[in-house]
Amino acid sequence: MTAYKELIQELIDARKKTGQSQSELDKVIGCAEGLVSKWECGMRKPGAFLFSCWADALECKIQLTPKKKTESA
């Protein structure tokens, strides 16, 4: 799984843990209706700023960690 897909999955899991719907998260972030859904299913890709907004809305932070030597890009 790519780093991008891993990050999206972590954000989906975090949203589900909070019990928020995609629509509710759209409102918290302040983005267009249905945009979180499109991000989660891969129809659209958020830019860096919106990734940050998404994480903030879920009270999370994005953290980089080194790949293990056995992992490929």
Overview of this structure, please?
The chain is 56% helix and 0% strand. It is an all-alpha fold and 73 residues long. The protein is globular and about 40 Å long.
Low-confidence segments, given as residue ranges, are none
Question: What amount of the residues lies in strands?
Answer: under 5%
**Proportion of residues in helical segments:** 55-70%
Overall geometric form? globular
Supply the helix-strand structural class.
Answer: mainly alpha
Taking all Cα atoms into account, the compactness measure Rg is: 13 Å
Biggest pleated-sheet summary: none
Would you report the number of β strands?
A: 0
Overall pLDDT score: 92
Distance between the termini: 9 Å
Order of helices and strands: HHHH
Given the structure, what is the number of helices?
4
Oligomer: single chain
Secondary-structure map with pairings?
Layout lengths: L2 H16 L3 H8 L5 H7 L6 H10 L16
Name its key features:
73 residues, mainly alpha, 4 helices, globular
What is the compact description of this entry?
The protein is mainly alpha-helical. The chain has four helices and no strands.
